[in-house]
Design brief:
Layout: E1 8-9, E2 14-25, E3 28-35, E4 39-40, E5 48-55, E6 58-65, E7 76-81, H1 87-95, E8 101-108, E9 121-127, H2 131-143, E10 149-156, H3 165-174, E11 178-184, E12 194-195, H4 200-206, E13 213-218, H5 221-233, E14 241-244, E15 261-266, E16 271-276, H6 281-287, E17 305-310, E18 313-315, H7 325-329, E19 332-334, E20 338-340, E21 344-347
Parallel strand pairs: 1-4, 9-10, 9-13, 10-11, 11-12, 13-14, 15-21
Antiparallel strand pairs: 2-3, 2-8, 3-7, 5-6, 5-8, 15-16, 17-19, 17-21, 18-20
Length: 348
Amino acid sequence: MTQSPQPAVWQNSQTLCCVERRQETVDAVTLVFRPLQPLAVNYLPGQFLLLTVEIDGQTHSRAYSLSSSPSLSADLAVTVKRVANGLVSNWLLDHFHAGDTLTAQAPTGTFFLPADYSAPKILLCSAGSGITPMMSMARWLLDNNCTTEIHFLHSARHADDIIFRDELMTMAAAYPQFRLSLVLDTVTDAFSCYQGYLNPELFNALVPDLNDCHQFMCGPSVYMDALEQMLQDRGFPMENSHKESFTPAAPLIAEAATSQQFRLEVPGFGASGEISNQQTVLDALEALQLPIIGACRSGICGSCKCKVVSGNVENISEQPGPLTEEEQQQGYILACSSRAGSDLELEL
């Protein structure tokens, strides 16, 4: 009897085919992918997929959190929402359909729910499209019959803006350990919800007990900053708080430095040009049309890692990045969250 070949280990870029496109809201869709060749697909809930597409003859890469559960099948799902100036996201919504293909790197990321998560409770907090990694975590916990008490706290503009709304309602009705709290700008009579923004008074009322709990959050920076402050005010151990953000890195001291121009050299590609201390290293490298991937553009995914051979850079991200201490000592930086402080020589 002929044995079926073992799935290949996912190495480098692989081609994925979209096998399903689901409309979640007016401006959000879920794209379900399947590798063209059998691959061993392994990831943890909360990690992301680095997708690469071609738009108008140029390749662009972006990171999208997986909304699927790693417990069900080899299919991978990401949920994409239309955003202002979102080149890749908006192109996917307007032009990408079932049967189309793109390339992707293997799932990765330092924001995830550990496979051996054993705390009695978990608090999943999200706003807008930040719901995607939270949904992956919730699905995984329920798929594996975990006894962990799940409190899913989500903020959105209105009822029709809630991504995965029907599935969340089904989870809340079917699983006694799953509690759903929805905070909406505009409330509805169709289901239980709370009006306004998530403020300390409402947060304390919805989450009176934070003992024996880990908290995961994803959403706009202003949302996560406010939530972190609420947790700190409650004396929550912040080592038990975990966050994901794909908001572009911003200078730590905005508009403080006088504009300066430096020389940028990349000898390995015979490229050189100018770089300002007001732009990221990634911006300068892309302007030189060098082969560097800027996926998350927020110092999270690590796709734009490069090495400083000579010169000084400033890290402008407050996010805990994926670079190890050893890599940093060796001169590696994330181009998307670094600015030049002198003439630079880089190695890609």
